[in-house]
Structures are given as C-alpha cells and as structure tokens.
Design a protein that fits this description.
Blueprint (H helix, E strand, L loop, with lengths): L9 E3 L9 H6 L17 H11 L5 E7 L4 E8 L6 E8 L6 E6 L3 E2 L5 H8 L12 H8 L12 H11 L7 H13 L33 H11 L7
Parallel strand pairs: 1-2
Antiparallel strand pairs: 2-3, 3-4, 4-5, 5-6
C-alpha cells in the first residue's frame, strides 16, 4: 500500500473496523474518565486488547481511507514506529503533490483539526466509487479524534451516540460514551475557522491569513471548490 509522502509498512486497515473491540481500541484514547469501559463501545476488554495488537503492530501500520467529494480522501495512518509512534490524519487528492496534515497524535494532538461542520460533511459525503470506508457512522467515529470546538450543534452527542449504536455499542451506554468522547475532543483548545482547517482553505496561522490557499498549496479556485462541496466557508472571516 502506498501513500505519497508516508513511509512505513502500510496495510489496509478498513477490515479492522468490523472486529469486536476495534472502537474501544480506537476511541478509548480520547476518554479522560477512569470509569470508561471498553464495553461501552461494543466487545469487551479482551476484544479490545486483541484488536489493539493489530492496530498498533510495528510491522504492519493500518491505514484507513475515507473518500469523499470530488476525489478527496481523508487518510488515517497508525504510524507504529518503534522510535516515534504517532497517529496521523492526512488530507489527500490525486492532483496534489503531497498530502496535507490535519492531525498528529503522538501523546499530544497537534494540527488544525476539523470543525464539527467539516467532520460531519466528510462523514456524510462518501464517494462510493473510491476504495475505503463508506458508512457514515464508521466514518464519523473514525475521524472523531480530529474534532475541535466550539460550534457543536445541540444534538452532537446524540449523533455520536447513534453512530456508536450503529457499529454495535450497547444503546444503554452509548449516550454516556458519546458525552465522554466529546469531553476528550472539544475540551482542548478550540478550533476557529480563521485558524485554517485544510478543509476550509485556511493557513493555520491566524486571522491575517484566513482564507488563503497557501495551507494546502492549492489555487484559490481549488480551495473554494472544496469548501463549496463540503458546505463550509472558504474564508468568511
């Protein structure tokens, strides 16, 4: 498997999403409460441990592809380097010379991340002709670590809980799990549209550069087209 600009023993990770314990292994890192249980996400602790062995395998780095509008793909890479492990979220397009970094999680989480509107737009706009994950619930939960607030809709927790149920989480604990996941994402430094998520065509350097396509090294027309396709402002600041 090849992703331009990313080196390592990359393997398709999509089949892992159907294994018991996957969502606990992927999402528990967001949870701050010591009361959080793997069972909240489906499966049990043994399932999560077994799946985690594959998810964090130094010899085979899982890659999860989330294709969406107009030939774009968000790619999540478990970079399981023994010396410098990190989970990376990249934005790619066949016309681009390199991917753009949306998030790097290596103990801390750095990068512009995604606002809720961007995250939900990607999750709900699959490209069925492209390889990767197409179910909205799966896409939403997979990309959830990139979420940055503020700007959450009133029903954000409800939507996350519904997604959890769709992938096999118990309905009785899904609302609690959803609330805990939101605390672990938007509880950090807030995402401002002016700070330049790649999906909004910003630069990540603040209001003075807001709306410029430099962040992705794209033309303004390409950046505006991407923003329109996702229903987010190209600048608007």
């Amino acid at each position: 498997m090849l992703i331009h600009g990313t080196e390592g023993p990359l393997v398709p990770g999509e089949p892992l999403t159907t294994r018991p314990g996957f969502w606990a292994a992927h999402l528990l890192l967001l949870c701050r409460s010591s009361d959080t249980r793997p069972e909240w996400f489906g499966g049990d602790g043994a399932d999560a441990d077994s799946t985690a062995e594959s998810l964090f395998d130094e010899q085979a780095w899982p890659v999860f592809r989330v294709p969406f509008t107009d030939g774009h793909t968000v790619v999540l890479v478990y970079g399981n380097s023994a010396d410098d492990p990190a989970i990376e979220l990249l934005l790619t397009h066949s016309d681009w010379s390199r991917p753009e970094t949306v998030l790097v999680a290596d103990g801390d989480r750095t990068g512009p991340g995604l606002s809720w509107s961007e995250l939900y737009a990607v999750a709900s706009s699959p490209d069925p002709a492209a390889d990767g994950l197409h179910a909205t619930a799966v896409r939403l939960l997979l990309l959830l670590p990139a979420l940055r607030g503020p700007g959450l809709p009133a029903d954000a927790a409800e939507r996350i809980a519904a997604a959890l149920c769709a992938v096999g989480a118990p309905p009785a604990t899904a609302p609690t799990a959803a609330a805990e996941l939101l605390r672990g994402t938007v509880g950090e430094a807030g995402h401002s549209p002016c700070e330049g998520s790649p999906l909004s065509g910003g630069t990540g350097r603040g209001p003075a550069d807001c709306g410029l396509p430099r962040r992705l090294n794209l033309s303004r027309a390409q950046s505006d087209r991407l923003a329109r396709a996702l229903g987010v402002p190209a600048c608007g600041c």
